[in-house]
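Weekly puzzle thread! Below is a chain. First person to post its structure in token form gets bragging rights.
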Amino acid sequence: MPNFTAHQHPALAVGCPTCGKAPDEWCCGANGQLSHDLHRARQAEADREFVEQYGDLAAIVPAATGWLIDPHGRERD
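Winning reply:
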């Protein structure tokens, strides 16, 4: 299971289906240079796996020490 709180960005917990980068590796463009943003497909995969792991009502929030999982974060929205 991906650990969404262990990375610089939560989406880095999963590999990128677009450029093939492994978890914890930043995405790269077609020219091999690091991308400014993570690919949309990677973000979508991270969202899908996050919901599968924590449920529809959970949210991930920034904290002083990194990221925290709030099991009822979306419930309050």
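Puzzle host: Confirmed. Bonus trivia for everyone else. The beta strands are 59-63, 66-70.
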